[in-house]
Hints:
Elements: H1 2-23, H2 32-37, H3 44-68, E1 75-78, E2 82-89, H4 101-119, H5 125-147, E3 157-163, H6 171-188, H7 195-201
Antiparallel strand pairs: 1-2, 2-3
Amino acid sequence: MDDGTVSHDASSADGARGDEDRDGSPAGETRLPEQAASPGRTRMPALVVTAALILVADLLTKIVVVATIEPGNPVYLIGDWLRLTLVRNPGAAFSMATGMTWLLTLVAVGVVVAVVRMGRRLRSGWWALGLGLVLGGALGNLVDRFFRAPGVMQGHVVDFVAVGWWPVFNVADSAIVCGAVLLVALTLFGVEPNAAHRKADA
């Protein structure tokens, strides 16, 4: 009788171990594979902070420029090479596509949505910086598109920085360009948005 009982218990234990093996891990460790697939924390907070700083800087500088500089009366900082001049731009960054204001507004909205969705899964700090710059710049110019004359989705963006022969731009334009250049560089050097995930898998 004793032998039969021991044999039955051993078979049960072996069966339980088999169940654990088929599940991949014991009950207390079922989340380990998921944890390994998503190590570290998301970089969304860093992205949001970067975007917020760019947005605030863009809005404040535009408010000051509109209040202090008259159109056609530039402020010369370094001769004619660097100056502040107020320009109302209906087009994209650096005065491109001036006849497509409403379409540019829709594109900017799409960029904002795409960046926010991507940021939810972001693990790379460098990607967070690049996307934050793009997001902040897009939001800064969107504020002008929606709230400045001549109307909603048709608003003209305030540009004010003139460097040499380069088209007049603003803080938002600079952030978008810098962010885009950084993202291209990260892609070329093989730094991916989920870099921490790839490192953990290796």
